[in-house]
Amino acid sequence: MNSTFKPGAGAATLMIAGAFAAASLATSAATAEEARLVPPPAVDEQASGSGAETAVLAGGCFWGVQGVFEHVEGVKSAVSGYAGGAAATAHYNMTSRGDTGHAESVRITFDPKRVSYGKLLQIFFSVAHDPTELNYQGPDRGTQYRSAIFPQTEEQARIAKAYVAQLNAAHAFNAPIVTTIEPGKAFYRAEDHHQDYLAHNPDQPYIAYYDMPKIKNLERRFPDLYRAAPVLVGSLTD
User: Fold this and answer.
1) Is 135 one of the catalytic residues?
2) Model-level pTM?
3) Catalytic, out of 58, 61, 68, 190
């Protein structure tokens, strides 16, 4: 994480960042209003009896993206990790350089009978991040923070491509969507201290300012799919 709002900065920097974030919380409601409810996908998958499915999405810092999907009904787990690069470089310190091909990502295991892949993408584009920001999200810069979808099946790839085209054609955003669709990429689980970070640190300045408004937007925009108690990774292992 390259932002001075995140752990790893010096004590003086964190003190300044904390003071700035505290003052900024008064305007966080306005920040939250920047999210928008985009239309659902015209093309979606049909629920089957095959059990759980997985989706892998990248939308900037994985703390916030994981936090959003942990509050979605039908999601069984949301795990922070890396996708887009090799296993040897799937480590935070290496990924943070921005030259590994990895993006900070979240692997979402979900029940397709309760929430569809297309609905997850609608949430992803509506409240989890801004898909018009190329290789950054908010204060975070680098290809590791890119907006990306890593389809796990050919059907997911078809749905994702159709949805991006649909939203661009409808001018759902004020700028073109820059989300990349990258099939055939493996997912690697991130270090334990990155798991459930939002849930365990809601008052951390970065989380409070940049990510907690996403949870409020999820509740407001998708009340039928919002659940107050998140499903946490806890001791989940691969």
Assistant:
1) no
2) 0.88
3) 61
